[in-house]
Amino acid sequence: PPPLLEPLFPPQPGASPGFAERVRQHKVRLEWVRAEPAGLRGAVRVLNLAYEKAVSVRYTLNRWASCAEVPAAYQPGGPADGLTDRFAFLLPLGAAAAAAEPTLEFAVRYRVAGAEYWDNNEGANYRLRGRQRCPPASPQDPDSSAWIHFI
């Protein structure tokens, strides 16, 4: 089975106290992530500074020797606070994540009204470590672990 990506940060920062205030201060914050077979799915919350805005996620699987960037899509019917918008993303990890111990790092970029804001986890980037999944246990013969009896 493919490796499981395990966040090295709380995977739901949006559920922590003071999240809305952090969005107001920094303009952009990661809300949550979830590893799936197709890749890493997540959501970003941004302060609604202008109608036109672009949110993207820049990521690497090789410690920034190379990187890719994917756009995040606006999610209508988002937060009811009227101050923020939600964007969703999917990082398609594909064959690169099939390495024995992949490490994924990413940061979120928010471009609005001629300015650019980043959420890079306070300078540490958001990092996920790959670990091999345990193969599913095969059904065993109930007698396979029994004592051998001598007559």
From TrEMBL:
Upper classification of the organism: Eukaryota, Metazoa, Chordata, Craniata, Vertebrata
CBM21 domain location: 20-129
Protein name, per record: PPR3E phosphatase
Any one annotated GO CC term: protein phosphatase type 1 complex
Native species: Columbina picui
Gene3D superfamilies on file: Carbohydrate binding type-21 domain (2.60.40.2440)
PANTHER family assigned: PROTEIN PHOSPHATASE 1 REGULATORY SUBUNIT, PROTEIN PHOSPHATASE 1 REGULATORY SUBUNIT 3E
Gene Ontology MF annotations: glycogen binding; protein phosphatase 1 binding
GO biological process assignments: regulation of glycogen biosynthetic process
